[in-house]
Design goal:
By secondary structure, the protein is α/β, with parallel strands linked by helices. It contains 7 helices and 8 strands, in the order ααβαβαββαβααβββ. It has one domain: Rossmann fold (3-Layer(aba) Sandwich).
Length: 245
């Protein structure tokens, strides 16, 4: 009997090219990545709360991740990497697009941050393990979500914490992200394929299939008064944490 091996990479070359084309203005809060700038505070707040809970950290500390290693997969030009580095993590940022890595390195140098940026696939990291592994709005762009999560799980230390975020496959996400956001140019056209969105139940099954245990699922929704907020509404987007089972 022949056992199918995992793919050498789950990178979709067309997706990598799409996001690499946005590298030049990734850090412009009014540019093609404006939506990610608006998402970042909510995502960071969730990450901070999750790591505090997981490692029983002092929520008043300015550097709660000091002494921890972190990996951000699909890091783009470093929008999440830089604040994680400021929280004290020894950070590796990994992205499929070399253009994004070049932009990330240049911005980190300007910011005085030592971040190890690399272009490549999580499946090819080798034996490296990290205390914190994050991957935000990435799994919906890979060729094989199960193999991708297996790669993330393989990069996770024994007491590590995995945090994912992704759009839910609902009528609301189709309208908000594709019909409105892409239709009005708030997000570059072709960024999303609604059929590749995963429901929380589907992603939970994938994560559990990789030998992990889901410990929390929270929604990311949009409030006209507050912007993006973390709460119980999962219809647009959601965050998920997992640990080794």
């Amino acid at each position: 009997m022949t056992i199918a091996s995992a793919p050498a990479t789950t990178i979709n070359p067309q997706e990598a090219a799409h996001f690499g084309a946005m590298a030049a203005d990734w850090w412009d809060p009014k540019g093609s990545s404006a939506m990610l700038h608006r998402l970042n505070p909510a995502r960071l707040g969730y990450i901070r709360s999750a790591v505090n809970t997981h490692w029983r950290l002092d929520d008043r500390s300015f550097s709660p991740l000091s002494g921890k290693t972190a990996l951000d997969v699909g890091c783009g030009a470093g929008l999440l990497c830089e604040p994680l580095a400021r929280l004290g993590a020894k950070l590796v940022g990994l992205d499929a697009a070399p253009e994004n890595i070049a932009a990330a390195r240049a911005h980190a140098a300007q910011s005085g941050l030592a971040i190890d940026y690399r272009s490549g696939s999580v499946e090819n990291l080798g034996s490296e393990r990290f205390d914190l592994v994050t991957s935000m709005e990435v799994i919906e762009h890979v060729t094989d979500p199960a193999a991708f999560v297996a790669g993330l799980a393989g990069a996770l230390a024994d007491d590590g914490l995995l945090i994912l975020s992704t759009p839910n496959r609902t009528a609301m996400s189709r309208i908000a992200l594709i019909s409105i956001a892409e239709g009005l140019g708030q997000i570059p056209r072709g960024t999303h394929d609604w059929d590749k969105f995963l429901t929380p139940e589907e992603l939970t099954a994938i994560v559990e299939g990789a030998g992990l245990k889901v410990t929390d699922v929270r929604g990311l929704s949009f409030s006209p008064a507050k912007g993006f907020v973390v709460g119980d509404d999962l219809k647009l987007n959601y965050l998920m944490t997992a640990v080794r089972a």
